[in-house]
Amino acid sequence: MEYFKFILIFSLLLIIKSKKIKEDEKTIMNLYYSKTNGKFTPKLSSSIDKDSVASATYINSYESKGWDFLSISSYEEPDNKYEDSIKSYGMGYLEGILNKNRIFSVYRNLMYFSFYDNDNKLPENVIQYLTKNLEYMKEKSIKYKDSDPYWEHVYYIYQQMLGMFDGYNSVAENEKKIGFIYFQMVVANADIEDVVYYNNITKRPNFKNMTLEEIRTYTALHTHCSALVKVTNDLSDIWIGHNTWTTYGSMIRTFKEYRFVSNKQNEKSKVVVFSSYPGSLSSIDDFYYLDSKLVVMETTNSNFNDSLYDLLKPESLLTWVRVMVANRLASSGEEWIEIFKKENSGTYNNQFQILDLNKIDINKKEINEKAFMIIEQLPEYTESADVTHFLTKGYWPSYNIPYFKTIYEKSGYLEVIEENPSLYASYDYSGSDRPVIFRREQTNVNSLEDFKKIMRYNNYQEDECSQNNAAWTIASRYDLNVNGVGRPLCYGAIDVKFVSVKEITEGKNIVHIISGPTNDKQPTFSWKNTTCDQSNPMRWYHEDVVDTWNFPWIDYQVQLFDN
Fold first, then answer.
1. What's the rounded Cα separation, in Å, for the pair 250 and 73?
2. Which of 88, 107, 244, 518 could cross-link to 159 by cystine, CB 3.0-4.6 Å?
3. 413 Cβ contact partners less than 8 Å away, ≥ 6 residues apart
4. Model confidence pLDDT, tens digit, residues 61-105
């Protein structure tokens, strides 16, 4: 009997493995679990089965829209039919199966971009860190999951990662199977940007020996994003949005929804909606819209103080894990910050911004205290504040420079500007290019269409703030720096995501999204026509990345929020 069960499951996996998902095709898959033999069985279906461990809906539209769409759900069971760890593992398992081809492409592109100078292999210090970090996460979550909701949900996220790893490798061809440490690199790739300096002084940047252009190039490749919260003059609407800056080889995008309901139901948010990538369990951008009515986003801060890397320790939780736990357990911005700053890894050091829609009533024209909170992180240090008063002034911008003076100083900004005064234009909190452009352009934002324009803004040829540099603006296009101003890198702003508080208040759970470098006032990016990859083509490796990026805006209707 066991033999026939094995043959049945093996045959189902062969069918799934060989199935070619057509462009724009909608695929539904349910996952079943046998308590008798402990085996998972995925089944393709025409409908969602809420009696399954988990269900997934996947739309293969990347080539036509710039995004694939993936929603994965677990369900409430009155009799606690499945353990929460089984449901978590199952959610990851489904994602690993459905995103098989995309995950391998992302893996290849990341390895070339991050480790082209190490024969496309993980350095030994990174392997050591990830091994110790995983063991710490596993041991502490197992020890405390029954007594502490924080570690309980860390454990579920750990199980989800294991599930995705197993699901992927269950259907991947032999030559495309990925080892667990390397798979963990894909999941945690933003944190890895700092992990590479763990116990490796020679790898760390020496800014004193760098030219101005080398400093600018380094920070370009290690900071990400522009973000904006804009309040209309009459408080009839608030828009909160974000664009991601990264390598164009990363433009394999998946817009995701996760719905996780534990048997204890101690999570404040059951559904998280976010922009992401195949193989990631967090946004990485980051941009999240939660059914707890929190909107969370971040921009990355630079670090010019390499001594901070001495404080990195694997006995912590990486930023991507802490973000997802905070998303689940927090019901306010203040709670989100308190949860997030636990187990600080000091990796992927960002300014996180949390807008609490529960503290905003646009019908009554009210924005209450702690409606908008921020937290900034460094190794062994965080600082946070209620910055709601900025919204009463009309806007809040974020642009990869620390808001807090202590963070700014600890990060070494003053020293690097003192040694290179011309960097003031790039790294001063109030006087550099983006804060000046945001301050000027936000006054023209009076509609949803205006908000789209500011988040895609790049007028570097005419805007004096940009000084003819296509990177010094809200939506950077480093690839256009071909006339001796800066280096032409295959790097820049690759998307926009935002929500409208008015639409949410009206019950329209819509996220407005667009994928690809801005072409509002600039030429459409195409790999066929660019010269940005000629200096180091392997670093800008872009397997299975769409060639030409001319996609429309999409009004994405959230699927998994409860009505």
1. 26
2. 88
3. 302, 304, 401, 402, 427
4. 999 999 999 999 999 877 778 999 999 999 999 999 999 999 999
Q: Which CATH architecture has domain 207-255+332-557?
A: 4-Layer Sandwich (3.60)
Q: In three state form, how does the secondary structure of 142-208 look?
A: HHHCCCCHHHHHHHHHHHHHHHHHHHHHHHCCHHHCCCHHHHHHHHCHHHHHHHCCCCCHHHCCCHH
Of 398, 378, 406, 374, the closest CA to residue 388 belongs to 374
- Return the domain boundaries, the chain: 207-255+332-557
Q: Which residues neighbour 76 within 8 Å (Cβ) at sequence distance 6 or greater?
A: 261, 265
Nearest to 355 by CA among 342, 339, 338, 336: 336
* Dihedral over alpha carbons 229, 378, 281, 127 (to 10 degrees): 160
**Looking at the chain, how many residues does it have?**
563
pLDDT digit string, tens, across residues 395-440: 999 999 999 999 999 999 999 999 989 888 789 999 999 999 999 9
Q: What is the tens place of the pLDDT at every residue in 148-165?
A: 999 999 999 999 999 999
The span from the CA of 336 to the CA of 322, in Å, is 10
